[in-house]
Amino acid sequence: MKKNGSILNNFILKIVQEENASNVQLVTKQNISVLVKLFENTSVSQINISPSIDDIKETSDLFIVLEDIELKDSEIGIIKNLLSQKIMIFTIPEDGVIESNMIKLGFQVELEDSKNKLLCFSYNLKTYNNKRSWNNSEGWANPENFDKYRW
Question: Do 64 and 27 form a contact (C-beta atoms < 8 A)?
Fold first, then answer.
């Protein structure tokens, strides 16, 4: 990892602890042995590291893609729909095109540090679409008016 490695490691460790993740999938080509060592005192019981998402078939509690991996929108869709409910994707801040695409896919900016060139997007299905008191089937059809009015 680069000079921002300790910031990145601490941020990932904090998320792993907050999510209480037991199965973590990391996609990177970098040496992340320092990060893996930090997971020893957490709830993580299984860590899978892969250089691409092509061969990943198992679901995980937390799916992390580091900045050295470029993903297509279709690959992000595969991760969201098949592989994990909590996703973190790190990129290098550029011209805003990546940010625009990630927002369109339902991701939120989790970390933005232009000084250390870190940008992290996250997606959590558990909190993505919170239940709202008005968003339910009760009273939508006004059942009390069924026999009163005809349209």
Answer: yes
